[in-house]
Amino acid sequence: MNINQFLDKLQKVKSLGNGKWQSCCPVHDDKNPSLAIRLIEGDRLLFHCFGCGANGIEICESLGIDPGELFPSKKENHKRESRPFSADQILNCLAYEGGIIEMAAADIVNGKSLSVSDFKRVELARARIKVAIDYASR
Questions:
Q1: pTM of the prediction?
Q2: Measured between alpha carbons, how far is 42 from 88 in angstroms, rounded to an integer?
């Protein structure tokens, strides 16, 4: 399976250029793209969901894909990339989710009650911020 066949199985895929994409995560009920996908060394894919922390194996399982179809066999001299996501990607995630929380806080300050779906989105924003911070501090 090539990268395009894989991306076709995801929802709300957005190219971020240079072998990088963002999409909704198939592991959890994701309404806003939180899954980061990165192609490295021409044939290796890295995944990380900033919403639920899912990795490549979990992503494949949720899509019914055998990870062996997607990931090349181990090659000698493959170096494990310790930081597949850049600081600016992490900061963009934090800024976006912080904006969600800011909008909810403004509604509360203005006397509006949050709907159940708005409250759940704030909870998701908090969880994504925690995952991003945990990821950045590894």
A1: 0.53
A2: 22
